[in-house]
Amino acid sequence: MIKLISANWKMNLTPSQTESYLERFLPLVKDVTDREVLLCPPFPSLCVAQRMLEGSNVRLGAQNCFYEKKGAFTGEVSIDMLKELGVFYVIVGHSERRWIFGESDELINKKLTACIETGLRPILCVGERIEEREAGLTLKVVETQLRIALSGLEAYTDSIDIAYEPVWAIGTGNPATPEDAQFVHAFIKDLLSQINPERKGNTRILYGGSVNPSNAGQFMSMGDVDGLLVGSSSLDPDSFAHIVKSF
Ligand code: 13P
Q1: Which residues are paired to 69 by β-bridges?
Q2: Residues known to be catalytic
Q3: How much distance in Å is there from the Cα of 123 to the middle of ligand 1?
Q4: Torsion of CA 77, 78, 80, 81, to 10 degrees
Q5: For position 69, what pLDDT does the model report?
Q6: What secondary structure letter does DSSP report for 203?
Q7: CB 63 less than 6 A from any atom of ligand 1
Q8: DSSP secondary structure letters along 71-100
Q9: Could you tell me if residue 152 is left (phi over 0), alpha (psi between -120 and 50 degrees) or otherwise beta?
Q10: Which atom of ligand 1 is nearest to the CA of 172?
Q11: Does the Cβ of 231 fall within 6 Å of ligand 1?
């Protein structure tokens, strides 16, 4: 299974900044063929990114989508719109969507269903908050999030990737330990095997939360860490290229 190293730029980098970023970044990673590299810019930067990524070894992803095909949904973006822009992956259920914008597990399930129906590969984010971790509820929270998100999609677990992003580790400079990540990733894989006994094991489990060029290699040395989802450290092309090549 090829590893997936992804950048989530969140609400950063305008279209012109995206252009400058890619002019610097693409030559740095042009020889990388043994892992998949993914950039998820904000919507307004997708067009320029699509143009610049054409023919490159870097794939394009989006940070969100809506589940309806079209219509009166002011401010939302459909999967068909994203696909037309060359988008291959979409992040679904990021904790910032859950906790700032009130996305529920049920809404996330609808988005995942729409992605699977239309062939856009979702990266489903799960992870516990600090108070849940301190109460010893990490595995329970992750299990609940996964079971609801995958409800009705049990046969399709090979068509998605999952990012384990503990909320307390995001943007704090305080990552999980690689061992903690490994523990939760192994749990997620066991759970997937229960949910879909037929699964072929194509679901990659990414770690996200304060990944940087110094710790990326340690996470990637864990047996069940199949990739990374990087926020702040992906905003600098040198730093993200370093992460891409860190293992
Ligand atoms: P940071 O790398 O800034 O902690 O963000 C992680 C994240 O939320 C990626 O989706």
Answers
A1: none
A2: 94, 165
A3: 14
A4: -10
A5: 97
A6: -
A7: no
A8: SS-TT---HHHHHHTT--EEEES-HHHHHT
A9: left
A10: 4
A11: yes
Contact by Cβ (8 Å): 188, 223: no
Ligand 1 pocket residue status of 210, Cβ below 6 Å? yes
Amino acid of residue 145: Q
Residue 170 CA: which ligand 1 atom is closest?
4
pLDDT score for 90: 98
What is the predicted pLDDT for the residue at 41?
98
Q: Using most ligand atoms within 8 A of CB, pick from 125, 210, 243 the residue to mutate for ligand 1.
A: 210
Q: Output the average pLDDT for the chain.
A: 98
**H/E stretch holding 133:** helix 130-134
Q: Is the pTM of this model over 0.70?
A: yes
DSSP state string for 152-190: T-GGGGGG-EEEE--GGGTTSS-PPPHHHHHHHHHHHHH
Which residue's CA is the nearest one to ligand 1's atom 2?
Answer: 231
Give tens-digit pLDDT for 54-110: 999 999 999 999 999 999 999 999 999 999 999 999 999 999 999 999 999 999 999
Topology of 3-244 in CATH?
TIM Barrel (3.20.20)
Q: What is the pLDDT of residues 130-163, one digit of tens each?
A: 999 999 999 999 999 999 999 999 999 999 999 9
Name the nearest CA neighbour of 91 among 128, 46, 124. 124
Domain ranges of the chain: 3-244
Establish whether residue 232 lines the binding site of ligand 1, counting it when its CB lies within 6 angstroms of any ligand atom: yes
Tokens of 158: 């090979």
- For residue 174 and ligand 1, the question of a CB distance below 6 A is answered with no
